[in-house]
Structure formats: C-alpha cells, structure tokens
Amino acid sequence: HVQLVESGGGSVQAGGSLRLSCAASGRTYSNWCMGWFRQAPGKEREGVATLDSSGRTDYADSVKGRFAISLDNTKKAVYLQMNSLKPDDTAMYFCAADFRGDSRSRPSNYRCWGQGTQVTVS
Fold this sequence. Notes:
With 122 residues, this protein is mainly β. It has no helices and 11 strands. Strands 2, 4, 5, 6, 9, 10 and 11 form a 7-stranded mixed β-sheet that branches. A 4-stranded antiparallel β-sheet has the order 1-3-8-7, with no helix packed on it. Strand 4 (33-39) and strand 5 (46-52) form a beta hairpin. The protein is globular and about 40 Å long.
C-alpha cells in the first residue's frame, strides 16, 4: 500500500494561486499513475489532474491552462500548481495512487487516498 499525505491548501482570493503537495511513502511501482481529485460539498468527487510514469498528464476541462501536475522523484512528491483560481475551485482536494482500471479520472479506479486538504477561493 502507498501512504499519501497532502498539504498546501488554504484560503485565497479569486485570481490567486496555491500549490498542493502530496508526499508518498510505502510501496512503489515501476508503472504508476497518480492523480489529484476534488470534492465540493454536495457534489461527487471528480478528477482534476493525473500523471503517470511515462510523463503523460491529463486534466479536467475546467482546469486546463490553469492547473499543472508535476512530480519530484527525489522527494517522492506530486504537486498541483493551481493558478487563476476561481470560487468554483473551492473543494477538498485529494491525492490518489495505486491506479487499477481504465479511466484515469474515475475515483473508484484508485486504491490509495490521502486525507485531503481544503482549498477555499473567495
């Protein structure tokens, strides 16, 4: 199993930026995919961005051009740089790993989750 710990959330005004971090520890895989998801109150958890071991990245249409997912292999950390934040980006953000399945944006295809970090945009 992979242990994930998110950090970097907070409150920011519209147009501002935040960088979320996800520190991973435990079992590692040669072929992997990790993702950032978010869940707003009363809404389903949705995929925001994913990154795999080949370097492929995918983004939800709502964040394309504003968010960027990246990896620091030496620190075993995945980051989500969020720019031009909007009130609609307000949600709890989760890091996910241990992908099994087809769709990278489907939360049920990930077996390991962090505890989440709150992002509030006003």
